[in-house]
Specification:
- By secondary structure, the chain is mostly helical.
- The protein has one domain.
Length: 242
C-alpha cells in the first residue's frame, strides 16, 4: 500500500516521491486518491491555519488558492479549462470532444478559470484558524474521492488516459476502501456540515458524469480533473457558508 500511495503522490502532486511511475500502476491504486487528498489538505490547511492569524483574509485566500494550484501541478485546473471549452462547444459529440482536446484555450475556459479562482479566494477568505484548516482538509479528501466514484460508475469516452482508471476501479472492494477513507473522517471532523458536503459533492460529481456522458460519450482525464476542482470549490463554499 505504501508503494501505491507513493505512486499516486507522484501522479497527483509535484511533491518529491518517485519518478517514472507507470500509468497502470497509478490506475490500480486510484482508490488511494483520498489519502493523497488528505496529505495535500494537511499541508495547505496547516499553511492556512498559520497565515490566517496575521494576514488579511483576502491575501490568505489568494496565497492558498495559488498553493493548491501549484502543489497539484496545475493539471486539474487545466482540465477544468478544457472541460468548459468542450461543454460549451456547439455541435456533435465529436466536435465537443475536439474542443475539449484542443490545446488552445477558448473563451469558455478562460471565464471558467477566472470564476473558479475568484470563488476559491472568496471561500477561503471567509474562514480562518481551525475552521479554515478543517475545511481545506475535508474538501480535498472529498475532491479526490469523487474521481474514484466517477471511475467506478462511468466509462471512458475513448481509449486514453482515463481508460486504465475506469477499468481498475470497477472492483467493488476498492470503492469501499476509498469510501471509508473519505466518509469516516469527514463525518467525524465535519459533523452535520460534513454530511451536507458529502451529499453535495457526490451529487455534483454524478451530475458532471451525466453531462460528460451526454456531451462526450463518457469520461476522460479532463472530466476527472474538472470534477476534482468543482467539488473542492463547492465544499469550501459550503463550509464557509454554513
Amino acid at each position: 500500500m505504501l508503494k501505491g500511495i507513493i505512486s499516486v503522490i507522484s501522479f497527483l502532486t509535484i511533491l518529491p516521491s518517485t519518478k517514472n511511475v507507470e500509468l497502470d500502476t497509478v490506475a490500480k491504486n486510484m482508490y488511494l486518491f483520498p489519502v493523497v487528498g488528505a496529505i495535500i489538505g494537511l499541508i495547505i490547511g496547516a499553511a492556512g491555519f498559520g497565515l490566517s492569524s496575521f494576514l488579511d483574509p483576502l491575501i490568505v485566500g489568494l496565497l492558498l488558492t495559488g498553493s493548491v494550484v501549484i502543489i497539484t501541478g496545475i493539471h486539474h485546473t487545466d482540465a477544468l479549462c478544457d472541460f468548459a471549452d468542450g461543454i460549451m462547444a456547439k455541435g456533435t459529440k465529436e466536435k465537443k470532444l475536439q474542443a475539449m482536446r484542443d490545446p488552445a484555450v477558448g473563451s469558455s475556459g478562460v471565464i471558467t478559470i477566472v470564476l473558479y479562482a475568484g470563488g476559491m479566494i472568496i471561500a477561503l477568505s471567509m474562514m480562518k484558524g481551525f475552521t479554515l484548516f478543517q475545511a481545506i482538509l475535508l474538501s480535498e479528501l472529498l475532491a479526490k474521492f469523487v474521481m474514484v466514484l466517477q471511475a467506478n460508475r462511468g466509462s471512458s469516452a475513448w481509449h486514453g488516459l482515463s481508460s486504465p482508471f475506469t477499468q481498475s476501479m470497477k472492483e467493488k472492494k476498492k470503492l469501499v476502501i476509498a469510501t471509508a477513507i473519505t466518509v469516516i473522517p469527514i463525518i467525524l471532523i465535519g459533523g452535520i456540515t460534513g454530511v451536507i458536503v458529502i451529499i453535495a459533492g457526490v451529487t455534483l460529481s454524478l451530475v458532471l458524469l451525466t453531462v460528460a456522458n451526454r456531451s462526450f460519450g463518457g469520461i476522460s482525464g479532463d472530466v476527472f480533473g474538472a470534477t476534482n476542482e468543482l467539488v473542492r470549490l463547492s465544499s469550501l463554499l459550503i463550509f464557509a457558508s454554513v
